[in-house]
Design a protein that fits this description.
mainly alpha
Length: 211
Amino acid sequence: MDTTRTRDCRHCAKASAANPDPRLRAESSRQHCAGCCSICGNMKTQLKILTGIGLALGGIFGIAGTVVASQNLRAVFWALDATGVIVATSLLALMYFRKGNDCVAAGFLVYTIGEAVMLGGTAQTLVASVPAFAAGTALWSAGLVLVSVPKEFAMATRIAGLIGGLLFAISSARIFWGEPLLPISKPLPTLGYPFLVLSFIGWIWALRKAN
């Protein structure tokens, strides 16, 4: 049994302190810690699965929303996309904060805020949603850069994130400058979406490989 885990588990410490016999106290602590670690491990696995599902929903419905002709269907697809990504990136922010990588955690937090801002304009027409889209892509860009600069993910994932961040920064700047760009305009911002999806895939892969 890992003694570090035993020391770090508050529940195990309480269980150990309740037994006056030192030998029985140590045995009680080991048994209790084994149960706690099993529960914590299962919870972490479930959270990783939930995070992966959220990112997958974001990638699938986000791209689907850019190609459908129906305004109503596009709004539903992008609402599913944004909700899934908000859940996933919120969990990723907590995971990397606990891991001690503050820059990556902050990046996921900023990205979550940007996605939430963008969700506010999803039910509107493309033209009416432009202000929310411009603000959201600015935060997407900042979040992707913060996540991708540290050497936390695979190089391909980081490159995709940095390219996507650059393209979204240009798109946002052009909208704020007064250009009539829509969320589905070509080449920008549409060109940035594949790089965003590649980042999602890289994040899912990193979750799959994580202990």
